[in-house]
Write a structure and sequence with these properties.
It contains two helices and five strands, in the order E-E-E-E-H-E-H. With 87 residues, it is an alpha+beta fold.
């Protein structure tokens, strides 16, 4: 995984690492940034975002959380759907 500050021009398809605001719009952590998202961020004056890009063989955050939860769950526990790396 590559993680760090990314210029908007290079951020299409990257996974947003922290919530970001763009005028009225708010983008949550974990969102895969689209061209429309980047246009809204640019219009709001945002020039960079902190984001991640998965590399071959990487496991997405929610899938990793799900796997760990299933391995750790025992009698009397249920695993909920993972969201932002938590079950």
């Amino acid at each position: 995984m590559k993680f760090g500050r990314v210029k908007l021009a290079e951020a299409a398809g990257a996974i947003l690492a922290h919530a970001a605001g763009a005028g009225e719009a708010r983008f949550k952590k974990g969102r895969v940034l689209s061209a429309a998202d980047l246009a809204a961020l640019d219009a709001a004056g945002v020039r960079e975002v902190t984001a991640a890009r998965l590399e071959p063989g990487d496991v997405p955050e929610d899938e990793a959380a799900r796997r760990i939860a299933l391995a750790a769950a025992g009698p009397g526990l249920r695993v909920a759907e993972a969201f932002t790396g938590r079950c």
